[in-house]
Amino acid sequence: MNSPAFDPRTLFDLSGKRILVTGASMGLGKRFGWTLARAGAEVLLAARSVDKLEALAADIAAFGGRCKCVALDVRERDVIRATVDQLEQDGPIDVLVNNAGIAIVRAPERFSDEDWDSVYETNLRGPWALAQAIIKHRLADGRPGNIINVASILGFRPIGHLAPYAAAKAALINLGRELCVDLAAKGIRVNALNPGYFETEMNREWLASPGGQKLLKG
């Protein structure tokens, strides 16, 4: 996955920065963690299971990068606040990458209340709680901050069978816009990434389906 020949420091240098990446155990989050560490940042790798982060931490250590594995379920708001407070004791978090997310693929009539709640809590409420926790610390110490919400192209162009996911990602995009209005003058930047169809563990099965293949050939 990670090419030793690629050095992101030829594009940007993040030496001295501390960056928290959620959903870092797989997919885009795993790639974000590796690249940011390769660029010189100390990366706080967060996921529900620390065990799944160990291979990435080993890859980062192999090139002399700095990282820390953090057990974090973004559905648990009290845990989020306590975790951010604890991490801040070792130094300010300069950048938050709100990457954790899940998708459930079903026809609209087949979504349960539990499906909706699970997607909403992971893809929207968790990122909000994390952003708010970081914002409070940066406003308290007056340091600049950077929040990057990983949304999706589906926040703009729904394709069906992903109602909770598309709704949550659209809301995440607009949440970032609203935070920009409140925080830009205070030195805290908020941006959204809206990836298209990258094959990851989350969507690999769907991309291999007839619907996914039709989209790719599109």
Characteristics of this structure?
44% helix, alpha/beta, 7 helices, 6 strands, 6-stranded parallel sheet
Walk me through the structure.
The model has no long low-confidence stretch (mean pLDDT 91). The two termini are 26 Å apart. The chain has helices at 27-38, 54-62, 77-88, 113-141, 163-183, 204-207, 210-217; strands spanning 18-22, 42-47, 66-71, 95-98, 145-150, 188-193. Helix 2 (54-62) links the parallel strand 2 (42-47) and strand 3 (66-71). Helix 1 runs parallel beside helix 2 (54-62), helix 3 runs parallel beside helix 4 and helix 4 runs parallel beside helix 5 (163-183). The protein has 218 residues and is of the alpha/beta class. A 6-stranded parallel sheet has the order 3-2-1-4-5-6, sandwiched between helices.
Offer a concise description of the structure:
This protein is an alpha/beta fold and 218 residues long. The protein is 44% helix and 15% strand.
Task: Please outline the helices and strands.
Layout: E1 18-22, H1 27-38, E2 42-47, H2 54-62, E3 66-71, H3 77-88, E4 95-98, H4 113-141, E5 145-150, H5 163-183, E6 188-193, H6 204-207, H7 210-217
Parallel strand pairs: 1-2, 1-4, 2-3, 4-5, 5-6
Q: Largest sheet, if any?
A: 6 strands, parallel
Percent helix, as a range, is: 40-55%
The low-pLDDT segments are none
Structural class: alpha/beta
Contiguous helical run count: 7
Distance between termini? 26 Å
Mean pLDDT value = 91
How large is the radius of gyration? 17 Å
Q: Biggest sheet: strands side by side, in what order?
A: 3-2-1-4-5-6
Q: What is the β-strand count?
A: 6
Q: What is the global morphology?
A: globular
Order of helices and strands: EHEHEHEHEHEHH
Strand content: 15-25%
